[in-house]
Amino acid sequence: MSSLTDLGAAAMLAALRTGEVSSHELTRACLERIQDLDSSYRAFLTLTPELAMKTAAAADRRWMDWRKDPQTPPPPLLGIPLAVKDLLCLKDVRLTCGSRILDQFIAPFTATCVQRLLDAGMVPLGKTNTDEFAMGSSTENSAYQVTRNPWNLERVPGGSSGGSAAAVAAYLTPAAIGTDTGGSVRQPAAFCGVTGLKPTYGRVSRYGLVAFGSSLDSVGVLARSVEDVSLIFAQMAGVDPLDATSQDVPVPDCSMDGVKSLAGLRVGVPHEYFIAGISPDVEKAVRSAISVLEGLGAQIVEISLPHTSYALPVYYLIAPAEASANLARYDGVRYGLREGGRIPGDTLLAMFEKTRGLGFGAEVKRRIMLGTYALSAGYYDAYYGQAQKVRTLIKTDFDRAFEQVDVIAAPVAPSTAFKFGQHSDDPLAMYLEDVFTLPANLAGVPALAFPAGFDRQGLPVGLQLMGPHFREDLLLRTAHAYQLVTDWHRCLPPTPNLAKVN
After folding, report:
1. How would you class 364 by CB atoms within 10 Å of its CB: exposed for 0-12, middle for 13-18, buried for 19 or more?
2. Distance (Å, whole) CA 76 – CA 25
3. Does residue 290 register a pLDDT over 60?
4. 184 an active-site residue?
5. Which of 250, 289, 399, 449 lies at a 20 to 30 A Cα distance from 201?
6. Structural domain that includes position 88
């Protein structure tokens, strides 16, 4: 492994500041590693080498100017290579959302959160693979390729931000942007042994994020450490007039300075998250990690989130209903794939049917049908309306819990990374992989996943922390204290046997 790609984002920034390395060298090292190894992982859908090298050259010029005249501080991420999930717009770069229906679509503008990172000096390496329209827990639903888990190439990286998680875990990039509608940052972070943050709903602008579930979608960060996640999150967060759901709440200081002890911190452990069917290895690693928090001074408090068992059915009514409405725009008329409509006698309805039938994959069609049914006349109140009422109860559970504790600790997923095809014929089993992550999205609270050990097969296990609305800083500081005394986040996956994979 190149020593330059060993560096995390914070370490890269420190090396750039001293002039030890250039952004050109860092970016070239990442692109060469992607070229050498991504045929094994298949984390990237689109690479932007020309844009990356052009941006890196501009960053190096700015660093040189700063060294000559250090009066004006350089942008906080100047020269750092990053990857972006292919669900976010980057102007003049292909945007597919992992779907054939957007094949060869070129984004006409840049998402707000991506633009903020560019303004902060980010060097864009490319777009990472995703389950189609973020609908999946394994990245097997991408219309283009299946991404492999760097810890075991026969297993999934999680989803839907599996491409971003795999790219970070494989040291192809120091960090990547992902999205989280029901666990799509945290679950792949856990499966790939990296750190992933889902911010509070409304903390990071969704403008330029292709919508799946509009009341659930969040843009998050994946990196190899809490320190790196914090560095990038701080630049993405903040109110945006282009997103009516973004909140004008001050972004807290997320610096890790002075974080060591957790004395006085109350950590809640909900018994509903340790259910029958959870892997014994996962439970053992999670409880061991909670003990580490206790050893750092935290007080462990047993709590209850009584409506947790309803999160799965509630989510799979609300999310598909919102997806059904959001995906209605892909009709072959304005942009994207168009099938039919060119032959005399073809009707507009026939064009819609052909375009959507050929353009959407099986999982997207399944969720559109579920959502359309839940919203249909005679069923709206019984399904979607009722689900929203129960969602309020789930949020109330969290509100009451945070009157007793500061953060909540729980598993990220009931198992470690599973084999390809293991849940292909059983959608419910696949949906159950998100059973521990869905409640945070329904309640809108921030949640963080980070490495907490391995199972007996050598696969990473993640610990999840959830906090009150807009207290990402509390989660990050707690996890940073944990990472100061543990080494799980520094463990490296094996180098792939290229001859075997290819």
Report:
1. buried
2. 19
3. yes
4. yes
5. 289
6. 3-267+404-501
Q: What is the mean pLDDT of the chain?
A: 95
Which two tokens mark 272?
A: 């509903």
The predicted-structure confidence for 37-81, as pLDDT tens digits, reads as follows 999 999 999 999 999 999 999 999 999 999 999 998 999 999 999
- The reported pLDDT for the residue numbered 343 is 61
CA gap 406, 264 in Å, rounded: 9
Residue 346 in this model has a pLDDT that exceeds 90: no
Which of 99, 184, 279, 324 is labelled catalytic?
184
Tell me whether residue 85 is one of the annotated catalytic residues: yes
pLDDT in tens, 432-447: 899 999 999 999 999 9
What is the token pair recorded at 224? 């190899």
Q: Which residues pair with 209 in a beta bridge?
A: 88
Average pLDDT score over residue span 457-475:
98
Q: Is 107 exposed, middle or buried (0-12, 13-18, 19+ CB in 10 A)?
A: buried
Q: How many domains does the structure of the chain reveal? A: 1
Check pLDDT > 60 for residue 499: no
Answer whether 231's CB lies under 8 Å from 9's CB: yes
Contacts of 494 (CB under 8 A, 6+ apart): 150, 151
319: in domain: no
Residue 397 maps to a domain: no
Cis before 137? omega within 30: no
Q: Regarding beta strands 407-411 and 266-270, do their DSSP bridges make them parallel or antiparallel, or are they unpaired?
A: parallel
The answer on pLDDT for 260 being more than 90 is: no
Q: List, in sequence order, every residue forming a beta bridge with 448; answer none if it has no partner.
A: 197, 465
Residue in the block written with tokens 């060993």:
6
Site of tokens 């050990």: 453
Identify the helix (H) or strand (E) that includes residue 294. helix 280-295
- DSSP, collapsed to helix, strand or coil, labels residue 97 as coil
Count other C-beta atoms under 10 Å from residue 445's C-beta.
Answer: 26
CATH of the domain at 471: 3.90.1300.10
How do strand 81-85 and strand 175-180 relate by DSSP bridges?
Answer: parallel
**pLDDT, tens only, 361-408:** 999 999 999 999 999 988 999 999 999 999 999 999 999 999 999 999
Considering the domain boundaries, does residue 115 fall inside one? yes
Give whichever of 377-381, 425-429, 481-485 has the largest mean pLDDT. Answer: 481-485
SS3 338: coil
User: Which residue out of 22, 160, 161, 279 is catalytically annotated?
Assistant: 160
Q: Considering the domain boundaries, does residue 109 fall inside one?
A: yes
